[in-house]
Each structure stands twice: as structure tokens, then as C-alpha cells.
Design brief:
Distance between the termini: 12 Å
Radius of gyration: 15 Å
Shape: globular
Structural class: mainly beta
Strand content: 35-45%
Number of strands: 9
Helix content: 10-25%
Strand order of the largest sheet: 3-2-5-4
């Protein structure tokens, strides 16, 4: 983790949903991998996939009995993000409450994110 900060935190609902997803996997998984990639009308999209193991350079968030592996290229985009899981009349989905997000498209599939400047990050304790 960068400067002793949690890159990502989970709500109870998100942790419970990740546990449910992991329980349904075809084979044992170490956790969930989260990242960002270029795409969509707003410029970036969040990515999630099963993670069989930790890849070199990944941060690991261990929270509420689950492990979330953070793609190294996504750390500065996700720093301080809370991952939630919401259910409405029309959809159930993971939601990223990201303080670095500057806008989102109308379809809800892509976002604009400004990475945290490494110079603005506090020094390690």
C-alpha cells in the first residue's frame, strides 16, 4: 500500500457480495482483482475479474474476510475509493465511490478519473 493508506475500502454489502461471488467460482480463487482501463465515452472504465493469485507489484486490500488485488496501473486512480454494492428496482451492481472521479457518462459504464499526484501523497509513517 502506498504511504500506509488503503487504496480501496469495502462496504459490508460489497464484502458480502464478493464472498458470494467467490463461493460460486468454478475453482478456488484468492480474491477479486480491480483496476481501470481506457474506454467508454467518458474515458475510463473500472475492471473486475477473479484472481487466482497475487501478481507482482499488486497492492492487496484485505477487508472483512476478502482480498482485493489492485492492478498497479490503477493505484493512483483508485486511492481513497470506497467499493459498495447496490440493489435497485432495475439493477444490482458494484459502485465505486471514488474521490478522484471527475465525471461519469450517462450510461453509467465509464468515468473520467484524475490520478492522485504522487507529490501530493503524504510520506510514509
Amino acid at each position: 500500500m502506498i504511504a500506509n493508506f488503503k487504496v480501496l475500502s469495502l462496504t459490508d454489502r460489497a464484502a458480502d457480495q464478493i464472498k458470494a461471488i467467490m463461493a460460486q467460482a468454478d475453482k478456488p480463487m484468492a480474491g477479486l482483482r480491480v483496476g481501470v482501463r481506457n474506454g467508454g465515452c467518458a474515458g475510463m472504465t473500472y475492471t473486475m475479474e477473479y484472481a487466482e493469485e497475487r501478481k507482482p507489484g499488486e497492492d492487496v486490500v484485505e477487508d472483512q474476510g476478502v482480498q482485493v488485488f489492485i492492478d498497479p496501473k490503477a493505484v493512483l486512480f483508485l486511492l481513497g475509493t470506497e467499493m459498495d454494492f447496490t440493489t435497485t428496482k432495475l439493477a444490482s451492481q458494484f459502485v465505486f465511490n471514488n474521490p478522484n472521479q471527475t465525471s461519469a457518462c450517462g450510461c453509467g459504464e465509464s468515468v473520467a478519473i484524475t490520478p492522485v499526484s504522487p507529490e501530493l501523497m503524504p510520506a510514509s509513517a
